[in-house]
Amino acid sequence: MTIQISSAPCCWGVDDVRNPHLPPWDRVLEEASTAGYKGIELGPYGYLPLDIETVSAELQKNALSVVAGTIFDDLIDPTNLDNLLRQTHEICALLTQLPKLSQAPGQHFPAPYLVLIDHVHEERSLFAGHPEEAPRLSRERWSQTMAHIRAIAELARDRYGIRAVVHPHAGGYIEFADETLRLLEDIPYDVAGLCLDTGHLYYSKMDPVEWIREHADRIDYLHFKDIEPAVYSRVMADKVDFFDACAQGVMCPIGRGVLDYEAIYRLLGEVDYQGYITVEQERDPRHADGSLQDVTASLEFLRSKGFS
After folding, report:
1. For residues 180 and 116, is the Cβ–Cβ distance under 8 A?
2. How many CA atoms lie within 13 A of 297 on its CB side?
3. Which residue ranges traverse the bilayer (predicted)?
4. Which of 29, 77, 141, 164 fits 137 for a cystine, CB–CB 3.0-4.6 Å?
5. Which residues 6+ apart lie within 8 Å of 158 measured at CB?
6. What is the distance between the alpha carbons of residues 36 and 300, in angstroms, rounded to a whole number?
7. Which of 185, 180, 70 is closest to 117 using CA atoms?
8. Residue 267: which residues within 8 A CB-CB, separation 6 or more?
9. Where are the domains of the chain?
């Protein structure tokens, strides 16, 4: 396997650019580099500047490459499509100006990717991780969402040559097994790939090993997380809002939670996964002082299990 391990701003609590407690973006890049990472995601739209000269200077200073940009926004509302397409243009325009990343033999599509995530909706967030109780979209609203994903992915592909990947996410309307399988039926692989996240799979009652094995041919990119079992049991029992659960520490450094990364490593060898994996650990940004220690521990653990 040729695998590159990267990091992401959400490890510093960066999920909502309107949050007044976010750490400075240049600090995030500096600490990711200090921890030993060679790659970083842009984070949510508007966190890192989209000015190529400004971003390039900081990336070069910290010996980092950008492996993905993210649209973490409302993919459902038809009035939001213009905003989504604007984000697509601006993110992809930046990505295409950055140095090209190497593509390993057998890697489905080259990075950087455009990761599409339906944001956490208030009416779904309390039911994150509860597939039997969470409200679902109507057929009409689901079809509209799929049309939005196709429009974004086709724009990224045809205008910029950037591969879009859809990330099922706790608290969004593409979260659970039935929704992810429906997504795979409705979005052809030539339009968009899949970004599976081990932590979100587990959080939402899906076995990461099983899902990676069954859908390896659709997976272009992976996110790694770990789940702290005692916190997870409590927030499931109490139906805690997803981001409140993150603030309580439901996501922990890799190797300290319930996920079996030895089994995941063996599986990725079996399915011949090649390319990029990004470590994530959502938290409250007011706890970002612990981020450097945690992202360092995650990388050291993965390296001890054979990941490069």
Report:
1. no
2. 15
3. none
4. 141
5. none
6. 9
7. 70
8. 209, 212, 213
9. 3-304
Tally the C-alpha atoms within 13 A of residue 78's C-alpha that lie toward its C-beta: 6
Task: List 65's β-bridge partners, or say none.
Answer: 39
Residue with tokens 């309390």: 126
Residue 30 · residue 291 · CB < 8 Å: no
Query: Could you tell me the pTM of the whole model?
Result: 0.98
Structure tokens at 41: 């995601």
Where in the chain does DSSP place strands (E)?
3-6, 39-41, 65-73, 113-118, 163-166, 193-197, 219-224, 275-279
Q: 249: which 2 tokens?
A: 């520490």
- Please provide the DSSP assignment of 238-250 as one string: HT--HHHHHHTT-
**pLDDT one-digit tens code per residue, 255-283:** 999 999 999 999 999 999 999 999 999 99
Compute CA distances 201 → 10, 64, 195, 197, 206, whole Å: 17, 28, 11, 6, 5
Q: Which amino acid is at 232?
A: Y
Strands across the sheet containing 275-279: 3-6, 275-279, 219-224, 193-197, 163-166, 113-118, 65-73, 39-41
CA angle (59 as vertex; 20, 227 as ends), nearest 5:
55
Rounded CA separation 54/49 (Å) = 7
Q: Six-digit token pair at 146?
A: 């799929």
Which residue type does 59 have?
L
